[in-house]
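Q: How would the structure tokens look for this protein?
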Amino acid sequence: MSQRRPSYFAITAVLAVMCVPCAIAQESPGPQTAAPASVQSTPKPTYVAQSAGSTFITLPSGTRVAVVLENGISTRSAKPGDSVYLRTSFPITQNNQIVVPIGSYLRGELLDTKRPGRIKGRGEFRIRLDTLILPNGYTVNMNAAPRSADSGGKETMDSEGQVTGPSGKGKDAGTVATTTVTGAGIGAIADGAKGAGIGAGIGAVGGLAATLLTRGPEAQLPRGSTLDVVLEHDLQLDAAQINYHDLGQALPVSAPPYRSH
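A: Here is the predicted structure in token form.
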């Protein structure tokens, strides 16, 4: 009995049927053992707020600043709120660098003023400094008061910046004495010794009247007075704002006129 050879088409059909499950198995994803890769979006730039990073130079409280007065002050015309202008006459240094150069400006104001009385009381005014301006325009707030002043007169200054004028007692006594002597001389010419006594009395009364009508010496600081200013609190300066290439210029300082009281 002869065996029949399978036809080519039959073998092809069998192979095709057997390959179908394999193809299905290859296409099926099957169970996942790892999480699918996430879709990565383009990251947004992150902006971190950064501080200016400024370096500050601190002038400690108690630092002394030598200044020259630019506008004269007198209790004759001064009033609270009037501005006071000064400029530095000597540089301030720190770590071998000039921090506040010559020619820097200071601005302040008069806090209160009082004219001298006709019988008693001296002229007084008080200064407060609140602004420092460097030659390049950098401006900072400050809190300072002058401690001493060379005004060419007999004014005194306390630790709070109050200037007190001289007393007028010596001048008043001189006025009474002068008018007494003058009256006595006129009386003596008119009526001898008796007239001298009467004239002296009249002269004394006139001198006293003149004293009562005349105020004492005004408290004043003329233009060109030198003052010593003391910082009452730490003063911070931005190092980036300080121009070390412009150190200011020394300006001539004219001494205030001598004043006799």
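The radius of gyration is 47 Å.

Confidence is low (pLDDT under 50) at residues 33-51, 171-177, 183-187.

Upvote if useful.
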